[in-house]
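It would be a great kindness if you could assist me with a short task in structural biology. The matter concerns a single protein, recorded as an amino acid sequence and a row of C-alpha cells. Could you please explain, in whatever detail you think fit, how the C-alpha cells follow from the sequence? Thank you for your consideration; the sequence and its C-alpha cells are set out here:
___
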Amino acid sequence: MFSSLSIIIPAFNEGSRINQTVADVLNKVSKVASDCDLIIVDDGSTDKTIEKIKNDFSDQFSSGVLKVFSIKHTGKGAAVKAGVLEAKKEWILFMDADNSASIDQLYHFFSYSDFDVIVGSREVESHWTKRVEQKSRKLTGRLFNWTVRKLLKLPWLDTQCGFKLFKKQTAKQLFGLLKEDGFVFDVEILYLADKIGARVREVGIDWYKSEQTSVRLCRDGLKMFLSLFRIKKRWAQYVF
C-alpha cells in the first residue's frame, strides 16, 4: 500500500462517464493508499463535465478528497501537467477518465516502490494481465511504440498506457520540463526520465479500452509520429 497518493484524471467532454470513474476510484482507493486525494483537470470541456461531478460528489468536495479545476482546452498532456503541478502527496498517479485501467491495478505496483517511475503496460505479459482493445488500435499502438524504441532508443514496450505512477520529486521535475501538450506527452516524459537517470519500471496491468475515445487514428496518428522527431530534436543537446 502507498502511504500518500494524489490521483490525476484529465477530462475533456467526459460528462457521460466521468462520474462512474470517480465513484470507482473513491470506492477502491483505500485499498491501495492510506491517504489520498483525487484531482480532476477539466481540459476546457463543453459538456458540463465539472457540473456533473460537483452535483454527485458534494461530500467529497467539502472533505477535500476531491478537487476539480479547469484549464483552457490545450490537450491531455497540458491537463496532466496542470494536475501534477497541483499535487501534494508523496506519490502521483495519472489515469484515464474512461477507467481503462482501474485504480486497483496499483496492487501490481506495490513491489516496485523503490523506483522513481512505474509505468503501467499493456505489453508486459504476466499471469494476471488482460488487454481488451480494438485490433486496429492495438496494431497502431504497437507500431507507434516500435518507432519510439527505434527513434528515441527507449527500452519500454508501451509508452502510451494512461496509467503511470511517480514519486513526487521526480514528477515535479519531469512535468516541469514537459513541452508536449497532446497525446504524445507520455513519450516526452519517459524520454526525459531516461535523460535524467530516473529509475523506471514497466509493469503489466489489465486494460479494458472503451470504444468511446477522443483519439482519432487518422487525425492524431500522423501528428503523434511527427512529434517524436520534435522531442528528439528538442532535448538532443540538453545537458541535465
